[in-house]
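Lab notebook, bench 4. Still working through the backlog of constructs that have no structural model yet. Next entry is a single chain of 777 residues. Request: give me the structure tokens for it.
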Amino acid sequence: MLKTLKARLFVLSILVIAPCYLFIYLSFDYSRNIVINDVLATAQRVSYQAATAQQDQITMVENFLREMVVLPALQNPQSSQCRDFVRQVTQLDERYINVGVPNAFGILTCNGVALAKPIDVSDRLYIKNALTLNKFTSSGIQQDRATDKLTINFAYPVHDQKTLRVIGAGVVVVSLEWWQTLLSRLQLPEGSVAYVLDGSGQVVAQFPRGNLSQVPRDFNETVYSKDGIRRVYSRHKVYDLGSDVQLSFVTGISVDNSLKLVEGKHRYIFIAFTLTVILILLLFRLFVLNTILRPLNKLADLTSQLGRKELILAPDSTGVKEMDFLQDRFVEMSDRKSKAESQIIKQTLTDGLTGIANRTAFSQALSEHLHYADNKVNRLAVILVDLDDFKEINDTLGHEAGDEVLRTLANRLHGSSEYCRLISRPGGDEFMLLVDHNELTEAEVAELCNSILKLIKRPICLPHNEVVVSASIGIAHYPEDGHDVESLMSAADQAMYYAKECGRDTVRRFNWELRRSLMTKIEIIKDLRKAIENEEFFLLYQPIVNTAGQVVKFEALIRWQHPTKGIIPPDGFIPFAEQSRQIIEIGEWVIRTTQKDWEVLQQKYGEQIQVSVNVSPLQLSYLKTDTLVNSAGLLTAPVASSKRPDHNGLVIEITENLLMDLDENTQKALLQFREQGVQVALDDFGTGYSSLAYIMNYDIDYLKIDKSFVQKLGEDLSAGSLCEAIISMSHTLGIAVIAEGVETEAQATQLKQFGCDFLQGYLFSRPIPLEDALKFQ
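Model written out:
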């Protein structure tokens, strides 16, 4: 009986103890897998971060090259300006060990690192692709010829800004030493290793240097390395612009310490449990189960919470020292992770220079306020402040002084109004303010902006200077000017540019006419790019007669036959052409076409016939390039068919305002006209502020009296006196006079009485095509 009872007790004990030991084993295996999975997640995250850094590097380099290749310094890769520029650019980023610009034939002379002689890189596939395929390319890992280091090179085609043909390639060279630095900064756990592999799987960088472990064949599982450390390896591949593997990032995180901790803890639990079962198998069964299972479950919960990126609060003590230690570590890891994420978010939303919000933070805040405003029918205003001529401060006093000015203005703007909900610096020399003005009228918002102008103009004391800056301010209101973030910020931007055009140091509110004007301008500029290629421009010629009524000159006038808008007069597209600098190419076409037509006009009127051509200031100041010649050189060049090699029959017409605002290149062009015998007419005389000294200095041949004075003859006595005085003054200086806008016989008769030399206007003829000009008179 006793034996039977003992046997039953023994069997019962076995039945009770066996599941408990099995549970302990399964708990240990579960915890071990959790540790391994957590370490694997860490390895995968690190590999992903490294790969993301590489991908971000590629994106950053592409954006950097895209912005760099349109700069004027790169338009001539053989120039010293190009070399000086790339040497400065090379120093902007520690990852860029070299920046260069091979020309269209793959010859590298413009280089950030000094070259003993030009280097032929035309055999580099990525250079060929950039030049021929006209796209952003990368090299993969290679031995850079200019620096003799292992690098990854990137190239972007450089286009001529006028013809858009490829004239070279901007190249950025990134050393693999930067990846070694990146691996060192990842703060991997002790005993961890990391590798960077090239496309063929060869190790090109490793952390730490000289470690004995090797890249395993298997990933995402525990591997025993040669150095005796158990690690979990993860791999992340980065593909190039095609579909080939460019780099692979392999991270091996040590699991020894974590597993030893779990093993030691479970060993302690096993021994304690065994002793407890032997001593008080029946009486303390519930206590033992609670002591083991509850800490393990809590530890599993903490592990799951950490894996789900949840905030872990300090749990109650388990009564087991080791378990409490692990719990504390989980809480500590959660706290550190939460602080790191908060810091990253703060840095993402803060301007590093001034400490105020950046563009991203402003956009988020505006979006939130718009949502609230939609629900509550609130009114908002977006105010954009752009400093006037801030570049001069950086150029004259240095960027440190410019930074101090920006910090000072940010402090002044902070708290400038109780209605201002946020102040941000979106970049450069701009500030944006978000104003909740439910209780303010639009006039009061404008007054607030005027007070901001005064606040900005207060002197700023720098260590060795005192500066005063002004600003242009644009205002956009919700809901009148837009209903979303993008439209409101765009409206404020357009209003600010309108303030710039109105003389700066002023405030302007957005209106829809601004947007319509901007869209019209953008559309015209876009259509102008193809107007010459599609032969949409044509010339008309208006006769200029002498006092006897004989045609002695013509004025060439450009017109645009738009495919959808019809005839567009010059004042409808010339200002936009000048702003976009397309006037240079258009002006060259006008000059060449006029020269050809003048050769035809000679056959009818003789070689003494002249044709006037209106010239823009940009044409005279523009320097010669590979594709376009300077207009001054084109005008002074002789026409092959002319009987007089030094004469091409053209008269250059410039405006009175241009004469008063000459830059160095324009002055040289006018002096070149005088030296080459090309005659110059001063157009629209009387509307500007020319002095006699300017007229005499540049040997003006003709003055053209503005039509606004001519058309008042007979109606306004002062107009007649003014015209007579202009003619008399001009003759005293040896300058002939042309009267524009003559429409009546009375006007013509009076001008002849004043001694005017030439007449032009509808009385004689409107502007007419070349074929009609050949039949005229």
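Notes after review: The mean pLDDT is 79. The radius of gyration is 40 Å. Flag for follow-up if needed.
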